[in-house]
Amino acid sequence: MPSKKSKKQWADKPWFRLDNAALIFPGQNTEQWSNVIRISIDLTVPIEPPKLQRALCDILPRFPTMAVQLKTGFFWYYFEKNENEPIVRPDSNNQSVRIKYHENNRFLFRVFYYRNRIALEAFHALTDGYGCAVFLCTLAAQYLRLTGHDISCGGMVLDLSEKPRPEELEDSFIRNATPGATLPRGTHKVYHKTGTPLPAHTFHIITGNMPVSVVKQRASARGATVTEYFTAVLLKIYLDFQKQEAGKQKEVVIQVPVNGRKAFGSQTLRNMSVCYTVGIDPNLGDYTFDELLRQTSLWLRYVNNQKTLGAMFNSNVQLQTSPLLRAIPLFIKDFAIRLSFHFTAEKTNTALFTNLGVIRLPEDMQPFVKGCIFMPSVGKRNDGRMGAVSCGDTLSITVANRYRETDTEREFFRFLIRDGIPVKIISNFT
Amino acid sequence: MSYCVNCGVELDDSAKSCALCGTPVVNPNKPQTDAAEPPFPQNVVLPPEERKRYGAIIASLVMLLPILVCIPINHFITPGEYWSVYVAATLILLWIYFVTPFLIRHKLPHTPYISLILDGVITAAYIYVMYHYNSSGSWFLRIALPMIGVFLLLGCLLIRYLSKNKKLPTIRKIAFALVMVALYAAATEFIFMLSFPNIYVDCVALTVFFTTAVLAIFLRFASDSTRFRAWIARKFFM
After folding, report:
1. With 90 as the cut, is the pLDDT of residue A429 above it?
2. How many other CB atoms are there within 10 angstroms of residue A109's CB atom?
3. Are residues B208 and B156 in the same domain?
4. What distance in Å separates residue A174's CA from the closest CA in chain B?
5. What is the interface pTM, i.e. ipTM, of the complex?
6. In this structure, is the dihedral angle defined by the CA atoms of residues B31, B33, B39 and B45, taken in order, positive or negative?
7. Which tens digits make up the pLDDT trace of B197-214?
């Protein structure tokens, strides 16, 4: 149960703190690194902008954590209730550009439409992939209702008639951190595949759609889950890339964000994910794909438990609660965050694979939904930042790449084709 | 439904080439039509430019403040001595050097030339203020002005060379920059000889001239040699 204090905070205060994971994002929101998550849903009906606008205004009171603006305090950033209306806009080719705090009536998310598609781009400080998916599904359901269809609630579609529950609004990191437990952070330099950068604010986005059943069958034939399978594929292709390049062989590390809600039974709609890393050192010898998959799946199963998560939360929460750090003015904190992210952050991982999982929709909504696309934030340095989501029998993997070269995507999808998984590609670059 | 013959992936109906490898789509059973709509919109919407001008305006105000404070103090408390002129001149110099690039950015054509000339003019003015209040003789007209003029001319030449020849190897660009340094050193020596033929200064500028000229000529011809470039790449790789 959330404490009395948190209940009071939500009921009475027109402002609230950023959650523990969100604290770092405003400090590193720069031209080069947007930290914008994008998720889109393809319906079977065309989108009419006025109705979408109405649906958005209808659902906003149910999501007080989304209807906010970012304000600057002396020591920390904070969220303040935003009384304006967000505007829905036609989609564009360059997605996930940086959020500026004053655009879109000061909302930190954008809603787009294109043909049958509704897309949501949200600043990572608001919520993570799961929170975005819930918001988008509720929006799509309300839109379908406004076009005359009868859609019930359930799954990722929230009931608009009920009030926001305190447990949806809590900072689950602070509540579930294990006091005293800490884990070291990875700080060593790893292999990076770079290329020719595209002009600012344009990215290569390639989505591969594949049948869930075939992927599951291929993964389970080797005794692994879908996430473990794709992570191992990424490891394999990056190890092969590095082998072709001259120079010292460095470790290849894949970042795998994990949704902490399952482990702690949390229902928060704010950030609740932390990243595990899977690393392979090529200096130990050549690995076959089956060896990589075995390493990956053993490692992820070994670390993925409540104890590790609690310790990882606590390592982050400690920084927020330390009396010394709290007393530092915000502009110095921002500078320090920027500096520390310049030297660590993406330098400590080669690529990212995030699996949002299954989009759970009510039965009467499923016939109206063709598919979903989930795209993690574009990297500052890394080319392979992959987001997977399954909706119905389609699993779609989206690669966000800031470079002109598409070697990573090509090798990744070719590997899947060779392994017997049919892939259909769509891209914003034609 | 078309497949990439190279990658084996299925492609979107609107795709003219494979997004992964760029292989063109040729499907005899299904000729390309423009009817199929692309999966993503084609229009690119760029966010507006960063608003750095606010910072520049605030910096300007902050720099204006000491001038506004010093001039009345100088006038009423210590009349006769013009020390506030140094404060004002220094701040204006710094303002032109560091703040104006943000104010005039992307507004005018040939911005680098304008910035350089503006910097040259303000430097000359600053030196003139120092000369006027502090010094005597004719060194300002006979040395300072010609040297600033030559500097601006060579600077403009360098900017023109670098902007016209972006694809040249770095070694060639360094060679050209060294030629400019050599010319500047030669011009300095020449200006000194003309202005003060009686003062003997040990040919310091000529030493710089010969060193940079030899280095520039060597780099210019060495950059044509594949073997030399390979040797440089081998010796200085990081």
Report:
1. no
2. 23
3. yes
4. 35
5. 0.85
6. positive
7. 777 767 788 889 999 999
Distances in whole angstroms, Cα of residue A43 to Cα of each of A46, A137, A367, A372, B235? 7, 11, 9, 9, 59
CB contact under 8 A, A427 and B19: yes
C-alpha to C-alpha distance for B180 and A402, rounded to whole angstroms: 38
If pLDDT is split at 50, 70 and 90, which confidence band does A9 have? very low
> How many whole angstroms separate alpha carbon A219 and alpha carbon A300?
15
Contact A205 B50 (CB under 8 A): no
Collect all residues from A whose CB is shorter than 8 A from any CB in B.
Answer: 31, 90-95, 97-98, 100, 103, 114-115, 200-202, 205-208, 406, 409-410, 413-414, 417-418, 422-430
For residues B69 and B119, state if they share a domain: yes
Residue A391 banded pLDDT, cuts 50, 70, 90: very high
Domains in chain A, CATH or no CATH each: 4-176 (3.30.559.10), 204-427 (3.30.559.30)
Domain annotation covers residue B164 = yes
Q: Determine the Cα–Cα distance for residues A179 and A173; give it in Å rounded to an integer.
A: 11
For helices B111-134 and B145-164, give the axis angle rounded to 10 degrees.
170
Residue at B212 is within a domain: yes
Pair of tokens at residue A5: 């204090």
Residues of A in contact with B38 (CB under 8 A): 430
pTM of the full predicted structure?
A: 0.76
Q: What is the mean pLDDT of residues A99-118?
A: 91
- Domain range for residue B26? 1-33
Task: Work out the minimum CA distance from B54 to partner chain A, whole angstroms.
Answer: 15
* B22-52 pLDDT per residue, tens: 999 888 877 766 667 888 888 888 776 666 6
Task: Assess whether B66 and B12 both reside in one domain.
Answer: no
pLDDT, tens digit (0-9, with 9 covering 90-100), for B157-194: 999 998 888 778 888 889 999 999 999 999 988 888 88
End-to-end CA distance of chain A: 51
